[in-house]
Each structure stands twice: as structure tokens, then as C-alpha cells.
Amino acid sequence: MELVTVNNGSLVTTTLTIAEGLEVQHKNILELVRSHQADLEEFGRVAFQTRVVDLPQGGNYPLTVAELNERQATLIMTYAKNTEIARTFKKRLVKTFYELATNQNPAIPQTLPEALRLAADLADKISERDKLISVIQPHSEALHRISLADGSLCLTDAAKTLGIQPKKVLIPYLKANGWIYHRPGCDHPIAYQDKLQQMLLEHKVTTVSRGDGSEKVTEQVRVTPKGLTKLAQIFGGK
To answer: How far apart are CA 192 and CA 199, in angstroms?
Structure first.
């Protein structure tokens, strides 16, 4: 069975191929495609074809088959049951798409319409790549920052880890967005209860040394690793 073929210069597979690979009835895969057609068509039009299938006992019957590109095929398989057979086939299909895409030599357009279609396809791919990078990069930077943190941090140290100013950026943000507040007569910030329950912030009793050598016990708001992760994602692109 040929998993992936080239149709009009594009790599495609079919619902029939997917059904055979997953060892399920074709009507089940076709029903998945029809149920999620709107999702699939975010990655291109789903092409339905009618094929004539020969019966073993003689005669034939028409069979509706959907043709899917790589992204559509990958998406529809996420909607299928994740059995051991399904996981094995999914890996085979993904590898086949990748190998053919890597080795495929793009045809040189012979006419102006073909050249325009090729240019449009390339523009779409570049746009999708840039969008993906814009989503991934802040989160990648955020994870790197978190990996350098050890336990909960005071607001000043949390700001340094995030690469932002504590008094001008972090603390005003936390106040404006319901993370911390100042109780009248209290000189230190206090975490809102919901942020404590979500384990984004915590209170720790801290002993502070005064200039005269005495000590003062105070309750300090600290940012937990979970809270730092969320803040790093918020400030990741800044």
C-alpha cells in the first residue's frame, strides 16, 4: 500500500489509506472527516472523490474517498482512537510525508498561473512558519528562565529572573491584575487568596535585619515556580 502520493505537485494520502493503516472501517474515517471538515479545511480544501471498487464476487460499487494533505491527515488521526496499531501507523505516515517532502524536487512552473500558485504556496508556508515561531519563542524563553529559578522567589528576585524591573513593571502588573494588594497600615504587599489557592504565590515568614542590629519578623509574598512560569509566559515576548 502506497501511503503517500503526489497529486498536482502536493503530497496527499486518502481516508482509504488511513482506514487500512489503522485497521478500521473506511466509513468510520470518512465520518470523522465529515464531522470535522471545518477544522480540516483550515489547512486547505478537502477533496472528495468517487472511486469504483471491484467486489470479490464480481461487480463493483462506488466509494466516496477524501484526499488529505499532510496537516489534514495528521489532524484527523488525532481524532482517531489511539491504539497501539494506530500509534505505529501514525509514525509511519508522518515519516513517509517527511521523507517525501525532503526528497521531492519541486517542479519548475511552466506557465504564469503555475508560477503564481507556487509563489502563493511558498508565501503561506513562510507565514505559517513565522506565526509558529512567534508562538513558540516566548514560551521557550520562559521555560529557560524557569529552569534557572530554584524554589519560590521574592518579588525583586522574580523580576530579575523575568528580565523586567520590579518597581516599574512587575509590582504594578501584579497590583493591577489581582495578584497582590496593600492592606491599610501594612507596609508589605499581600497575595490575594485565589492566587494562593492556585499556588501562583505564597506567603513566607521572613526575618529581616535592621540597621541597629535588631531583627524584624515579617510576612513576605513570594512567587512560586508555577507563578513564575505563568509570568514568564506573560512577559516572554517583552
So the answer is: 11
Rg of the chain (C-alpha set): 28
Determine the number of helices (DSSP H) and then strands (DSSP E) in the chain: 10, 9
Q: What is this structure's pTM?
A: 0.42
Q: Which of 163, 29, 23, 9 is nearest to 84 (CA)?
A: 23
Instruction: Note the pLDDT of residue 148.
Output: 47
Per-residue pLDDT of 39-54, as tens digits, reads: 898 888 898 988 887 7
Q: Which residues pair with 14 in a beta bridge?
A: 67
Q: What are the grid coordinates assigned to 89, written together?
A: 501507523
Distance CA 50, CA 154 (A): 65
CA 62 to chain centre: 39
Provide the phi-psi class of 106: left if phi over 0, else alpha when psi is between -120 and 50, else beta.
beta
- The cell numbers describing 3, all together, are 501511503
DSSP annotation of 10 reads E
Of the pLDDT bands very low, low, confident and very high (cuts 50, 70, 90), residue 27 is very high
- Left, alpha or beta for 220 (phi > 0: left; psi -120 to 50: alpha)? beta
